Amino acid sequence: MGEFHFQHPIEIRYSDIDAQWHVNNTRFATYIESARLAYLQHLGLWDGHSFLDLGVIVADVHIGYRKPLFLGQKAVVKARVSKIGTKSLQFEFEIVDTVTGEICATAETVNVAYDFRAETSIIVPDAWRQRIAEYEQW
């Protein structure tokens, strides 16, 4: 797989810290969620207003923790779509310390194309396929 073309900065807040004085593992899922939504907005696939128009729903999440994150640390979430199936998109993520370049976590989600009004999965729209392929330079 090639480079990550999209990066989303994250703010590590005091409320993200747990009793061990590092970012709680549950917050990593929030960070990748924010990056995924920002990716879709950046590509013009979601306007960021109505969640009924979001177009995808999470089906599966995997996070690999490599290094802890701490309050005040500078980090970004790198995001990309690595695969598009008939009804699904596979996203890959890296959470990276922007000062050292170290990867603090990797993650993968499978998102199903979804019509929230009809409450059913749908085929990934051709416009999404085309826009993502162009952006990811496939």
Attribute tags:
138 residues, alpha+beta, Thiol Ester Dehydrase, Chain A, six-stranded antiparallel beta sheet
Write a structural description:
The structure is a single chain. The chain has 138 residues and is of the alpha+beta class. Helices cover 21% and strands 36% of the residues. The protein has 2 helices and 6 strands. Strands 1, 2, 3, 4, 5 and 6 form a 6-stranded antiparallel sheet that branches. A hairpin with a 3-residue loop joins strand 3 and strand 4.
Q: Provide the low-confidence segments as ranges.
A: none
The secondary-structure class comes to alpha+beta
| CATH homology group | Hotdog Thioesterase
CATH architecture: Roll
- Percent of residues in beta strands: 35-45%
Distance between the termini: 10 Å
Number of domains: 1
The run of helices and strands is: EHEEEEEH
Number of helices: 2
CATH topology: Thiol Ester Dehydrase, Chain A
* Oligomeric state: single chain
Given the C-alpha coordinates, what overall shape results?
globular
Report mean pLDDT, rounded to a whole number: 97
CATH class: Alpha Beta
Count of extended strands = 6
For the largest beta-sheet, the strand count, sense and barrel status come to: 6 strands, antiparallel
Helix content: 10-25%
**Rg for CA atoms:** 15 Å
